[in-house]
Design brief:
Lysozyme; Membrane-bound Lytic Murein Transglycosylase D, Chain A; 3 domains; 10 strands
Length: 447
C-alpha cells in the first residue's frame, strides 16, 4: 500500500546559507551522492504524509497517510501500558485485531529501543510495535531504497539540527514526510523533503515565487524544519507533542490538550486528529529501522554515484540550457542537483543564488563562464516570456479533496481563485460538490 515514488534529487548546503564572495565555494570532496534515478516523475507527484500546515490538510489521503490512519483507528482504543525506564510493555487483555505480523518478538523490540538511549522519550505499545513491524517486515524493499538515501541526506540534517541544538534524532521525520524524496508533492500541495505547505514555507523564510521554490532545496528546507521544531518545543516543552504538531499544527495539539486536560502524547492521543495519532509512533518506527536495519536483513540501495559536487555563485540570469550546451553538464543532472529552480532558470540578477554542479565540471564552467551567460540569452530571457512566467506566480497545481462543510466559495477564497475558475478547471456545471470529491485547483488562479 505504501508507495515510495523515487526521483533521487539532491542539493547540498552552503555555509550557514550564506554565499561566499568567490564564484566557487570549497569543493565538498568528502561528499558524494547517489542518482539511481535521474528521471523526474511525469506528474511531479509523490506520496507522502507530509502536512507541515494544517487544519485544512487533514483530509490528505496519500497511501502512507491512509495506512497510518487505519493503524491508528484500529489500535488506539487499547494502548498497552508502559513505563519509560526501562521500557516495559503490557498488552491489555483482548488485544486488538489487525496487528502486523513480525518475526521479531516484543521483548527484542523493547530491548533494542532501550539500547538506543534516545534523547526523545520512546514508548512501546501495540501502536508503536505495528509501525516497527511495518518498516522492518512489510516494507523491507522500500526501506532498502530509503536507507540508501539516508547515507546521503542524514549528514546534512545532523549538521542542521546540531547547529540549532536540537536532538539529531529528529532527522528521521523526513523519512515519514517524503521517503527522502526532495521533490515529493502531496495532494494537498505540500512540497519537498520536509513537506512544507506554501504558507508555512513562506512563514519560515523559504522563497517561493515564479522561478524558485526553496521547499525543494534540501538544505534550506531542513533549516526551516529545524526552526519550526525549535519553536514547537518552546511552546510544548515536550518532543512527542512538538513532533506531532509538525503533522497537524500547534493549534490542533493545543486543542487536544485542552479537551483532555493532559499534556502527555499518549494521554491526549484520542483527542488528536486521526492522521496525527500515528505520526509519533511512525517516528519511533523510522528511528528504530535506521538503527537496526542490519538485524532485519535490509540492505541499503545506493547506485549511480555522481561523486562530489561544488557550488557556483550565479550573478546573472542563467538557464540550464546554456550550461548544458556550453559546459556540457546534462540538463537532467542540473535538475537533480537544483530542484528548487522551477523553470530551469536561476534568477541571478534578483538576488544571491547558487548553482550546484558535479565537481568534475567546475573548471569547464569557469573557463567558459562568459560564453555560458551569453549563449542565446536574448531569446531565453525574452521580456515577454519572463513576464509570462512571473504572471504564473503561485499558480501551482494541487488536488483538493472536498471535506464536510466545504462550498466552492470557501475553497476559492482559501486558494486565492474564483468560483468560476474552479468550475472551469473541473468541468462543473453547477456549484454542487460532494464530500470526498477531488478538485483540480491552480493556487492563485493563474491559469
Amino acid at each position: 500500500m505504501l508507495t515510495f515514488l523515487i526521483a533521487l534529487l539532491l542539493t547540498f548546503p552552503t555555509d550557514s546559507l550564506a554565499l561566499q564572495n568567490d564564484s566557487l565555494s570549497v569543493a565538498l570532496d568528502s561528499l558524494s551522492f547517489s542518482a539511481d534515478s535521474l528521471a523526474l516523475p511525469a506528474d511531479g507527484q509523490a506520496d507522502s504524509i507530509g502536512m507541515a500546515d494544517f487544519p485544512e490538510n487533514q483530509q490528505d489521503t496519500c497511501d502512507f497517510a491512509d495506512e497510518i490512519r487505519q493503524l491508528s483507528d484500529s489500535l488506539h482504543i487499547r494502548i498497552g501500558k508502559w513505563q519509560q525506564t526501562p521500557l516495559r510493555w503490557i498488552v491489555e487483555e483482548g488485544d486488538v485485531d489487525g496487528v502486523i505480523p513480525s518475526t521479531t518478538p516484543d521483548s527484542v523490540f523493547v530491548r533494542r529501543l532501550n539500547e538506543m538511549n534516545c534523547f526523545i522519550p520512546l514508548s512501546y505499545n501495540s501502536i508503536v510495535r505495528n509501525f516497527m513491524a511495518l518498516y522492518s517486515d512489510r516494507r523491507r524493499s522500500s526501506m532498502g531504497e530509503v536507507l540508501g538515501r539516508c547515507n546521503i541526506f542524514m549528514p546534512i540534517f545532523e549538521e542542521v539540527f546540531t547547529r540549532y541544538e536540537l536532538p539529531e534524532e529528529l532527522k528521521v521525520m523526513a523519512i515519514i514526510e517524503s521517503a527522502l524524496n526532495p521533490t515529493a508533492t502531496s495532494r494537498a500541495g505540500a512540497r519537498g523533503m520536509w513537506q512544507f505547505m506554501y504558507s508555512t514555507g513562506k512563514k519560515y523564510g523559504l522563497k517561493i515565487d515564479s522561478f524558485v521554490d526553496e521547499r525543494l532545496d534540501v538544505y534550506k528546507s531542513a533549516d526551516a524544519a529545524a526552526r519550526y521544531l525549535k519553536d514547537a518545543y518552546e511552546v510544548f516543552g515536550d518532543w512527542p507533542l512538538a513532533i506531532s504538531s509538525y503533522n497537524c499544527g500547534a493549534g490542533n495539539v493545543q486543542k487536544a490538550i485542552r479537551r483532555s486536560g493532559k499534556r502527555d502524547f499518549w494521554e491526549i492521543y484520542n483527542w488528536l486528529p486521526r492522521e496525527t495519532r500515528g505520526y509519533f509512533p511512525a517516528f519511533i518506527g523510522a528511528l528504530y529501522i535506521t538503527r537496526y536495519y542490519k538485524e532485519h536483513g535490509i540492505v541499503p540501495v545506493t547506485e549511480g554515484e555522481l561523486g562530489p559536487i561544488d557550488t557556483i555563485r550565479v550573478t546573472k540570469m542563467l538557464h540550464f540550457q546554456q550550461v548544458e550546451k556550453v559546459a556540457g553538464i546534462p540538463r537532467q543532472t542540473l535538475r537533480v542537483l537544483n530542484p528548487q529552480y522551477r523553470h530551469d532558470i536561476v534568477p541571478g540578477k534578483d538576488g544571491d543564488y547558487v548553482l550546484r554542479v558535479p565537481y568534475a565540471y567546475v573548471n569547464q564552467f569557469i573557463d567558459h563562464e562568459e560564453e555560458i551567460y551569453a549563449w542565446k540569452a536574448d531569446s531565453l530571457f525574452n521580456p515577454v516570456a519572463l513576464k509570462k512566467l512571473k504572471d504564473g506566480m503561485d499558480g501551482e497545481r494541487i488536488i483538493y479533496k472536498v471535506k464536510s462543510g466545504d462550498v466552492l466559495g470557501k475553497i476559492a477564497i482559501r486558494h486565492k481563485c474564483t468560483v468560476a475558475q474552479i468550475k472551469r478547471w473541473n468541468g462543473l456545471k453547477s456549484n454542487n460538490i460532494r464530500i470526498g470529491q477531488k478538485l483540480v485547483i491552480y493556487r492563485g488562479g493563474k491559469k
